Protein: ComF family protein
Organism: Taibaiella soli
Amino acid sequence: MKEKIKQMYEGFVHLFFPNLCEGCSRSLVADESVLCLHCKQLLPRTAYHHIPENESAMRLAGRVPYSYGTSFAYFTEKGLLQHLLHGLKYKGKKKTGVFLGTEFARELRTTSWINEIDLIIPIPLHAKKERERGFNQSFVVAAAMGKLLQIPVAENGLLRVRHTESQTQKTRLERLENVSGAFKPNIAIEGKHVLLIDDVLTSGATLEAASLAVLEAGAVGTSFVTIAIAS
Ligand SMILES: [Zn+2]
């Protein structure tokens, strides 16, 4: 009976607020969420996860000791992934974060290295920014990943102790100076292999600074994943 009422309610809601595909605006069918099957296939996935020296991992090579690094899909100007991330970050579409985290985790589940991870920590926003936005988009993604992979997620495992300026107009060295010392662990991470999650990988300076903070606090290893890799 309860199930029947739920179905009726969902049907009623759907009548007035149909779930539309974020890619092509067509109505989604029962098993689809956020993207229709067709648009889901158009996501420019990297398939990096089984390749140790992939482009994402190599972006941090020689800068910080890490075990594994990978990204879910390519970020292209005006592309589908940019549209999805924009909706998540600026329009509060958390469903999109859950969708991306789940899709990503399904791929990571096929690797053996994911079993080495003890703890997932999303890259935090500065407290002021999080207050303005109301949530940390990387946590939404991380929570969905942790759920599927059955790995604990520490929402506030790292604190952003210093406000950092926008990175876009800076050189690589300036970017690192801008973020170094920006993070401080907020929980005991000694002896753990920590997986850091960020939304977009550009220069890698943010992940570099966060990895260093985690290692300084006694983590035995760090790895990182990002939803997108920008060129
Ligand atoms: Zn579509």
Notes: The chain has nine helices and six strands.
